[in-house]
Description:
This protein is mainly alpha-helical and 423 residues long. The chain has a three-stranded antiparallel sheet. α1 runs antiparallel to α5 and α4 crosses α8.
Amino acid sequence: MSSGFQFRWTQHLLQGFGMPANDRFIRIAKNNRELSDVAFRLQTITTVDQIENLYWNLVYAYENVKVQQENLAFAQKTLSDTKKQVEIGTLAPIEVVRAQSTVASDQQTLTLALTDLQLEQLLMKNALSRTLVDPALADAEVIPTSTMEVPAQEPVVPTEDLVNAALSHRPDLAELRITLTNTDISNKAIRNALLPTVDLFAYYGGNGLGGNVSPYFVCSPANYQKNPEFCDGQFESFPNISYGNALNQLVNSTAPDKGAGITVNIPLRNRAAQATQVRSEFEYRQSQLRLQQLENQVRIEVRNAQFGVQQNRASVDSAQAAVDLARQSLDAEQKKYVLGASTSTAVLQYKSGLTAAEVTLVSAKAAYEKAQLELDRATGLLLDHANIEIADAVTGQVTHAISVPHAVQRPADQLPANAPQRQ
């Protein structure tokens, strides 16, 4: 029997030398794991953004219904008062017809507002539930327990600070940066593959031989007398070697095998590797260009979002001033009506003007809230401002209260009797 071993050590000196050429896939795998976390954060931001937009649409629809209900109640009361005055002869019967027309118009407007509210409630339930097959869920009302709040003084944040925050916190930018890093890692490994192969190697080994002497060995004691001419006049006696002794020969330098050297392999016109390297460089430059384009787009989005907040804040102030003016005009017209210097038609017209101004104010507030939401999304600070932790999003369990900016608890007297109270 025979045994043997060889220990061989090889070191790449050019192609395959260094960590970039050998830990490429490990580093890319780590970056891809981070990329998955960033993608999850982006999905969470998108979901929160969609839900908050749905909620502010619901709040607007709810507030609009309240305004239209108040307007209809006022029109119905005016119609009742007009009928009484017509009965006693202080007003012409035509005033009743005009008041009835106003009530019918207001009733139609309220119906439209109610259907819009039902639609927004349906959209919210669809976003929060898996299915609407359950009749109890389909018929349930969604009552917003928070309402819109516009700060008395708009905070002034420099645009450059908002842009810097967006460049640091936007998940889509982080995704492209990680992708660019992976491409750069691949480029280094691909460029290394263009180098010649120069390997330094060294080896050391040993051989061992063991077992019983073959009975056919011509110089054995049994065969010496028969064939003396093959053994130079003498015979040799070889002992039997055990398996353990044969293994011992591997390490006691009985039959060593050792050496060292250098192998060089220079490929001529390595077109395949060159094409791969050029394609990789193009991909890297394309990733750089996409990153630059996205950074420019982020800067534009942040500025547009900031402009949107400023414009909608101005719309809120203007709408509030219009509501104050319309309310004062209505009060003045009502006083004239009590003194007999005006008509119910004029009062209803002023009330319609007040209702339109209130609807415009509610719409402006909703647009302002969504503009603030868009600014938070554009800067990547939506989750931070809403006090939402990614760890809670991962587990699906909220461990602390969520704080939605510019939202306040709706007064209890503005909620239905069966509405739950938020703690």
